[in-house]
Specification:
The structure is a homodimer. By secondary structure, the first copy, chain A, is of the alpha/beta class. The first copy, chain A, is built from seven helices and 13 strands. Chain A folds into two domains: 45 residues, no CATH class; 207 residues, Sandwich (Protocatechuate 3,4-Dioxygenase, subunit A).
């Protein structure tokens, strides 16, 4: 178009993507372009602000690596990730929560029950769970992809002192839908504080950098909606101020001492009791 | 917040930036967060789509360098840059147009009139302009930052065969507000076609990659709004389908042969005439 004005620029930009052959992709792009234009107009974005925004995105790109996604962190600290998680959480099913930047494909398979403790320092605990359908029936053979941080607050990818694949595994639920993971109690940790997401947005807003301690899980089963979620610790200091908006009440569990001398022995604990977090996962149908 | 739901997540995310001390920055961030959330909800963004979008942004970051801003290109091909340009174009003043990715600070100062032809191949022409205020009065000593591509379609930063600073300069307008640049007629060129902005958005939409030939200028004068704009060639093939929405009718000029034996001699042209593009720039008050 030769005579673009403020009155026709948004329509021209949206229309320019009308040729995208995939209808869904076309919708995603066209609605995004409209929102971008509406945003610029609503705030009357100046050139200096536009350049500052581009500079910010460059810095986000510069610090990102295949192992560290600052874009993902940006999505997390703006609540966008949680918005998507909640959009796809069906009433009655376990709600979704942040995937986070530390999930990596190819986690090693373990037998169920699994023991991930190894040489890790920290409080030895059990996660005892069941995977259920919406009617409460057990889902046998569901895949569970599990990862968490170590006692120093770091995931194995962040910490060369940890062995490869430390504190992560995949396993399948038993015939009664159950799985058990012997592990250490995760600890609160900070989101990366050396990048633009924290330094230029979160910190200037006076927000904290801490996330309450949590397990990460992806639970999947054919015919059901894959659940990406987290399990939080009811006693955590940061439960009310998670830097990435991940906490939902249904995902908060409490460790309780259970009488289980066999498990205590397996975990190398002195007494007849073991601290157990019980949290079941209910999957919506696909 | 402990119990985040689809009903409160957007408000929680917006509120989390209430502590940004600078009011304007707070507005920019909070309105953007709201639009991002509204977008995700409006299109019901899936996790796979969200991950695909993050992957796209990673690829945009990966191909970007200090000399090549794929984020800027993305802003251009979605019309966002033009939206900002038009937002700040005041009625009666020369409209703004794309800064583009090839502006770099520190262009060498030249005397006015300037001759940038050097060893460049191409059609030798003159750009004869005046910088005026809104009342049509000349603005003497206004700063003009000028850059364009060479006969091969490339800017000097893209092309190691061109000398440093080829076809760019800064100069000041004369007492009558005039400036003159002897140069070569710019040629149409393609936006970068090896990055995600083109390969994943523009090309799949069946849009072209070409920009009509143009000069880039930034005209600035204390007390006046800085004008970032372009000047287009009325005879250009791509005037109606600029890949980045830069064309406005007021910025389209036509080369006309002017009788000027002295200038013809300076430019090394055989006849008594010189092809001249005349385009004045009218600056709004700050």
């Amino acid at each position: 178009m030769k005579n673009l004005t403020l009155d026709n620029i948004t329509a021209a930009a949206v229309d320019s993507f009308a040729g995208l052959p995939d209808a869904r992709r076309r919708e995603l792009v066209q609605v995004l372009v409209r929102h971008l234009h509406d945003y610029a107009r609503e705030v009357r974005l100046s050139h200096a602000e536009w350049r500052a925004a581009l500079g910010f995105l460059h810095r986000v790109g510069d610090i990102s690596t295949p192992e560290r996604s600052e874009f993902s962190l940006l999505s997390d600290v703006t609540g966008l990730s949680s918005q998507v998680d909640l959009l796809w959480s069906q009433a009655g099913a376990t709600p979704g929560s942040n995937l986070g930047p530390f999930h990596a494909a190819g986690s090693p398979w373990r037998d169920n029950p699994a023991d991930l403790i190894g040489d890790n320092a920290g409080t030895r605990v059990l996660l005892r769970s069941r995977v259920l359908d919406m009617q409460g029936q057990p889902l046998a053979g569901a895949e569970v992809d599990f990862w968490q941080n170590a006692a120093d607050g770091l995931y194995w990818q962040q910490d060369p002192r940890q062995p490869t694949d430390n504190l992560r595994c995949r396993l399948r639920t038993a015939a009664d839908g159950s799985f058990e993971i012997a592990t250490i109690r995760p600890v609160p940790y900070q989101i990366p504080t050396d990048g633009p997401a924290y330094l230029e947005l979160v910190q200037p807003a006076g927000r904290g950098s801490w996330r309450p301690a949590h397990y990460h899980l992806i639970v999947s089963m054919p015919g059901h909606r894959t659940l990406v979620t987290e399990v939080f610790d009811a006693e955590d200091t940061y439960l009310e101020r998670d830097a990435v908006f991940g906490v939902r009440e249904a995902l908060v569990g409490r460790y309780a001492d259970e009488h289980d001398p066999a498990a205590a022995q397996r975990l190398g604990l002195p007494g007849p009791t073991v601290p157990v977090m019980r949290m079941d996962f209910r999957l919506a149908q696909a």
